[in-house]
Write a structure and sequence with these properties.
CATH class: Alpha Beta
Number of helices: 8
CATH architecture: 3-Layer(aba) Sandwich
Number of strands: 9
Largest sheet: 5 strands, mixed
């Protein structure tokens, strides 16, 4: 369905809709999932179900995603390509295929629910204030791992001034936690190759842990680590730190 209003062009309509969304978003600053009717259909910032392997947690929805009706829809965003090249999906999904991501054990959510043109438009206070709602969401859906896309939101949510890329030993909301680079095309620090390498790491840990659970059960060895099972080791570290 094409959005039209009087004699306005599609591009003008999309710009007007985007401006309206940003204006409305600026009036409220909570973490509630963004749901709205757009020219592409109904948009939801969350794509979740219970028991997923990993939930990718973005900073907040982009205005382009709300207008298009799908997450990570901007042509310069490398999310879908990176997931495929990292082995999380057997083909490159398009933003319109996003619901198929659940079939691969992956989900999507955002720290802050309101859309902005730039992630920098979300304050650190907003990220901190969103923690309790995000905590409740993760505990409700119980993914094995939550992956924060970017250090800024992760630092605010995890309550640490500085976080490192990779596994976060403290976990979050009962799940393992991982900090990944943001796949936005604006993130010039990470090349496509570097992103793929980073995103392949949690996938390898999840796959290894699954195989180890089937083969070894929950047998412990040495310093309380589960033999050959990095997931169980990380979980033990998380529980001991609580």
């Amino acid at each position: 369905m094409t959005l039209r209003h009087n004699n306005m062009s599609d591009a003008t309509c999309s710009h007007a809709l985007a401006s309206s969304l940003v204006h409305q978003a600026g009036e409220t600053a909570d973490r509630h999932p963004m749901r709205t009717e757009t020219s592409a259909g109904r948009y939801a910032s969350e794509l979740l179900c219970s028991g997923l392997d990993i939930v990718f947690c973005g900073l907040n929805p982009a205005v382009s995603a709300v207008v298009d009706g799908h997450n990570f829809s901007h042509p310069n965003n490398r999310f879908w390509s990176v997931l495929h090249l990292a082995g999380s999906t057997d083909r490159r999904l398009s933003p319109q295929d996003e619901r198929r991501l659940l079939d691969y054990g992956c989900g999507i959510t955002a720290v802050v629910g309101r859309p902005t043109r730039r992630a920098a438009d979300v304050s650190s206070a907003e990220f901190r204030n969103a923690r309790s709602a995000l905590d409740a969401t993760i505990r409700r859906y119980t993914p094995t791992m939550v992956a924060f896309l970017g250090k800024r939101a992760a630092a605010a949510i995890l309550g640490r001034p500085h976080v490192q890329w990779g596994a976060y030993e403290g976990g979050f909301a009962g799940s393992l936690a991982w900090v990944l680079p943001n796949p936005s095309g604006l993130n010039k620090t990470f090349t496509l190759h570097a992103l793929v390498r980073a995103y392949a790491q949690p996938r390898a840990v999840l796959a290894h842990g699954s195989r180890a659970n089937q083969a070894l059960g929950a047998s412990a060895q040495g310093r309380g680590l589960v033999a050959g099972n990095p997931i169980a080791s990380l979980r033990r570290t998380h529980h001991e730190s609580v």
